[in-house]
Amino acid sequence: MELEDNEKKDSLKNFRSFGQQIVDTASVFYRRGWLFGTSGNLSAVINETPLQIAITGSGLNKGKIDLSGLIVIDVNGNVISGNKKVSSEADLHIAVIREMHAGSVFHTHSVWSTMLSKRYLKDGGILIRGYEMLKGLNNVGTHEHSEWIPIIENSQDMKTLSATVTSILRQHPEVHGFMLSGHGLYTWGKTPEEAERHVEVIEFLLEVYGRGNAGTDNIP
Amino acid sequence: MELEDNEKKDSLKNFRSFGQQIVDTASVFYRRGWLFGTSGNLSAVINETPLQIAITGSGLNKGKIDLSGLIVIDVNGNVISGNKKVSSEADLHIAVIREMHAGSVFHTHSVWSTMLSKRYLKDGGILIRGYEMLKGLNNVGTHEHSEWIPIIENSQDMKTLSATVTSILRQHPEVHGFMLSGHGLYTWGKTPEEAERHVEVIEFLLEVYGRGNAGTDNIP
Amino acid sequence: MELEDNEKKDSLKNFRSFGQQIVDTASVFYRRGWLFGTSGNLSAVINETPLQIAITGSGLNKGKIDLSGLIVIDVNGNVISGNKKVSSEADLHIAVIREMHAGSVFHTHSVWSTMLSKRYLKDGGILIRGYEMLKGLNNVGTHEHSEWIPIIENSQDMKTLSATVTSILRQHPEVHGFMLSGHGLYTWGKTPEEAERHVEVIEFLLEVYGRGNAGTDNIP
Amino acid sequence: MELEDNEKKDSLKNFRSFGQQIVDTASVFYRRGWLFGTSGNLSAVINETPLQIAITGSGLNKGKIDLSGLIVIDVNGNVISGNKKVSSEADLHIAVIREMHAGSVFHTHSVWSTMLSKRYLKDGGILIRGYEMLKGLNNVGTHEHSEWIPIIENSQDMKTLSATVTSILRQHPEVHGFMLSGHGLYTWGKTPEEAERHVEVIEFLLEVYGRGNAGTDNIP
User: Fold this and answer.
1) How confident is the model at residue A213 (pLDDT cuts 50, 70, 90)?
2) Is B141 inside any structural domain?
3) Residue from the list A37, A118, A183 with its beta carbon closest to the beta carbon of D212
């Protein structure tokens, strides 16, 4: 399915604008230690129908990329433009975008999300409640909110993992993020700006949770 | 009540000068992780009679604002100028300004204040004594000083919460700050500069307290 | 006792060169959280006979000063030049300079030195051994070195505290630093550069010590 | 053995390009606290036959050097060019380069590697498995990978220590790094870029390991 000329213009404009936000945010997140090595992936929808997604290329240091470090993929993960390798985790971004109608998906690798997601995998997730910072999540209006952050067992089989992610999101349509065990955080938003905010909010809450050893709260 | 022309000039001058201090400090505090997401609010009195307060707008990333991210409100929290939304927590700023005759109120969301304020809510506060850093608080001349930091249960009902804050401050007129449970720190000063210093001093002491697990000190 | 013209030139040259090193280092240390609020003092000898010391003024944010934030004092702590207030802790700088023949004294307030100096005051100090980083201390050639860091009880009586510091340094002429309980670290060097290195080395070792809960090592 | 003119050109080109990468990375690592004091050494092979290695000079603050802070040494650690002192640890760089056919060796001193390498020396190393970040290591394709990080007892006898390092690497040719107890991390790569990535990956995993107190995983 081809894009019309006007759609191509919009798509390109979105690539430049959302892409630059991704590049700038990646640089900040890298300096905070949330994207060390070549870890993490950030994406944004630049065209809805047909679906086109700008996503950071595989194997790059996300703190040092510019727009040429992004590629554009379609709904099946095929590369439409860009000369970088597509990450196998692009499938998870597509799953989140389709299931949650997200406009942007950010996947980060912080120390706290890595450590906690391994420790609490046996519980299937962690429950965070009673924090004002929760109000930074879309549609949350009170600190009395209980946020369930599912933890999914990590896997290199992206087909199966995508299906599991889709299934978990279908069971928990109210969540704002999930973790892969020993791997990190996925969160999203309508825009890159909202996805960035959700990363900051959830990473903050995970550090609070980890430092407080809030084991007794960990009951769904 | 209208401002005279001269008063308007002073008010505008104060807006520019105190406002810029707020913007600059917010940027530094954001990079330290004390204002993640869109959390926190910083304010300064720019006119005393009638009371006019410049305060950061609601729902903004405080690390990326300029002067246009501030609004000016009156003693009832009504917007006098600026095109951002007023935070519901503006009521708490007004309560502190009125009760403590503060010229500036800074509210930050650090990991340590969030974690400790939830853990020690049951004690009504934490007592910090024996630290030289206490001398960074206004009118404290010795490390032997005992600083009581009240913890107030968080609420979304700002009318009630303001009244509670006022009541606690009336009982403890000697305090330099308080925490809302699972929410963060409020502190203040005669100027934005003093409020900034108080944030650094109290945040430092909270981290020392948290790392030292100084449970046995926690008796008023 | 007056300075000759040539000596005045040297003294001024040293003020500018050592003073700038102090200002630059203070800015870096402040951003690392080692000089929050208005805490800490940094000094350097700019003339030996008669003794003239450039030292950061009292009550200033050490992360934001330039050369005008320094004052020059004599061996009795009297101000020779500069328009800032002299810190009462200048007496401790003078004591260290006289006793250890130091060219520069840096006093920092980190979370780790504050917390550990309070916890281990009862032991009179902490003993650090077995770390390669110890070789960053002047005249230490092996990680097998045992570094004793005395902890002295904090006091606001600077006359008594200076005498105690002098006495402890006379008993332990081999040390590279000491802590005041709940207060922070004093270290020094022949030059501001060496003092800066000693701060980094000791702060690093204190954090290692604190994180490792190396209680069993804490026997002199 | 002399270099031909063409080889000299290549060697100089590599010195400039790899040397600049070393200088830039050292500045970033220093700011992260991985090279405090004058600790750490970074090196890169700039000519293979005969072996020529650019390496940071001894006793320098690695966060503030430029190309003049590097020296070039031969396979025996003799200085070919540059006016800085050669570190005694250059022998370990040479041992790693020869045994692992590395193009670049980075040695860092972080708090976590220092603390963990002392705590777990008794076990001979630590085993890290189950983390996605492991895939940032060369030739690791799954988080199910088990990475053994040997810990070698620290020594000031570089001849013996080099021999021990060579022997350990021969026993464990699959490792990507090792630690010296109470001293820090050695890792390497085909290029300075890969060595930098390996530092970030291993330091990240050590912090996760340390925070998680993953004692039960510590069985080879």
Assistant:
1) low
2) yes
3) A118
Which chain B positions have a beta carbon within 8 Å of C183's beta carbon? 131-132, 143
Instruction: Supply the CATH number for residue B110's domain.
Output: 3.40.225.10
Tell me if C81 sits within 8 A of C150, measured CB to CB.
Answer: no
| Residues of chain A above pLDDT 70, percent | 95
- Alpha-carbon distance C191 to C45, whole Å? 9
The answer to whether residues C148 and C140 touch, using CB atoms and an 8 Å cutoff, is no
Inspect the interface and report whether the beta carbons of B156 and A133 lie closer than 8 Å: no
Tally of domains within chain D: 1
Residue A82 included in any domain:
yes
Query: What's the confidence (pLDDT) of residue B32?
Result: 97
Q: How far is CA C126 from CA C132, C181, C187, in A?
A: 17, 12, 15
| Cβ pair A131:B119 closer than 8 A | no
Average pLDDT over residues D189-204: 98
Contact criterion met (CB below 8 Å) for D33 and D107: no
- B32 vs A: CB within 8 A: no
**C22 to each of C2, C14, C55, C67, C109, how far by Cα in Å?**
26, 12, 9, 9, 16
Closest CA to B41 of B52, B54, B32, B28: B54
Asked whether B124 and B151 are in contact (CB, 8 A), the reply is yes
How do residues C20-49 score in pLDDT, each as one tens digit? 999 999 999 999 999 999 999 999 999 999
Token output for D38? 């004058």
Residues of A in contact with D203 (CB under 8 A): 36
| B219 domain residue, yes or no | no
Q: Do A156 and D142 touch (CB under 8 A)?
A: yes
Q: Give dist(CA C121, CA C209) in Å, integer.
A: 15
Which structure tokens are listed for D73?
């040494």
Q: How far is CA D39 from CA C28, C201, D119, in A?
A: 18, 9, 20
Please give the helix or strand (H or E) that residue D149 lies within, else none.
strand D146-152
**Are A200 and B36 an interchain contact pair (Cβ–Cβ within 8 Å)?**
yes
Report pLDDT digits (tens) over D137-170.
Answer: 999 999 999 999 999 999 999 999 999 999 999 9
| D142–A182 C-beta distance less than 8 A | no
* Contacts of residue A156, Cβ cutoff 8 Å, sequence gap at least 6: A88, D141, D142, D143, D144
Stated length of chain A: 220
Which chain D residues are Cβ-neighbours of C143 within 8 angstroms?
154, 156, 182-183
User: Domain limits at C197?
Assistant: 2-212
Provide the pLDDT for residue B70: 98
Spatial neighbors of A74 by CB under 8 A, at least 6 apart, are A50, A51, A52, A53, A80
pLDDT average, residue stretch C108-133: 96
Structure tokens at D8: 């000299």
Q: What is the mean pLDDT of residues A150-158?
A: 96
The residue among D217, D215, D12 whose CA lies nearest residue D128 is: D217
Lowest mean pLDDT of A102-106, B127-131, D208-212, name the range: D208-212
Q: How far is CA D113 from CA A116, C197, D116, D205, in A?
A: 20, 20, 5, 10
Residue B42 lies in a domain: yes
Which single residue is written with the structure tokens 């450039």?
Answer: C54
Give pLDDT tens digits for D33-43: 999 999 999 99
Name which of D136, D211, D212 is nearest A37 (Cβ-Cβ).
D136
Q: What is the pLDDT of residue A1?
A: 53
Distance, CA of D179 to CA of D32 (rounded, Å): 19
Confidence of residue B44 (pLDDT cuts 50, 70, 90): very high
Cα D160 from Cα D158, distance rounded (Å): 5
Q: In angstroms, rounded to a whole number, what is the distance separating the alpha carbons of residues A21 and A28?
A: 11
Q: C with D: how many residue pairs have Cβ under 8 Å apart? A: 58
